């Protein structure tokens, strides 16, 4: 039994493709906001005194290890001037398994250190210097304000 013999090969009349919008546009939502744009401030956003970069090579970490150090309750700060003409401040973060065997805890500590560096280093760091933050294990997570004040103290200590 062949059912195809009963079907017509003739196509129905011409229709516009169903996926294209109609000629008058989409009536479901307005094409643009009729209000004029708001006035915005012209101040620079996200621009800091010193550009921050990351330490990526092991050799850079080893060079910083030979510099000055300041131990604080939540971390140890290492600092070493590079001696080149580049004013970029570079930061490296180390949180070993000695702090915690749980990766979640170590990653949280690294995220907090990255944010701490973004908040404090542009104002207090010396240009052309490499810094390394080494996390220390503690009984409880220090609060944010204590971490900030400790980092400012450590920066002053390694600057002397």
From TrEMBL:
Record key words, sorted: Endonuclease, Hydrolase, Nuclease, RNA-binding, tRNA processing
Gene3D superfamilies registered for this protein in UniProt: 3.30.230.10
Catalytic activity of the protein: Endonucleolytic cleavage of RNA, removing 5'-extranucleotides from tRNA precursor
Keyword hit for Amino-acid biosynthesis: no
Record-level Gene Ontology MF annotations: 3'-tRNA processing endoribonuclease activity; ribonuclease P activity; tRNA binding
A GO BP annotation: tRNA 5'-leader removal
Region of interest (Disordered), ranges: 1-46
Pfam families for this protein: Ribonuclease_P
Keyword tRNA processing among record annotations: yes
EC number: 3.1.26.5
Cited InterPro entries: Ribosomal_Su5_D2-typ_SF (IPR020568), Ribsml_uS5_D2-typ_fold_subgr (IPR014721), RNase_P (IPR000100)
Feature: compositional bias, Basic and acidic residues: 26-36
First-level EC class: hydrolase
A GO CC annotation given for this chain: ribonuclease P complex
Summary of subunit composition and partner proteins: Consists of a catalytic RNA component (M1 or rnpB) and a protein subunit.
Biological function: RNaseP catalyzes the removal of the 5'-leader sequence from pre-tRNA to produce the mature 5'-terminus. It can also cleave other RNA substrates such as 4.5S RNA. The protein component plays an auxiliary but essential role in vivo by binding to the 5'-leader sequence and broadening the substrate specificity of the ribozyme.
Family from the record: Belongs to the RnpA family.
NCBIfam families per the UniProt record, alphabetical: rnpA
Protein name: Ribonuclease P protein component
Organism whose genome encodes this protein: Sphingomonas guangdongensis
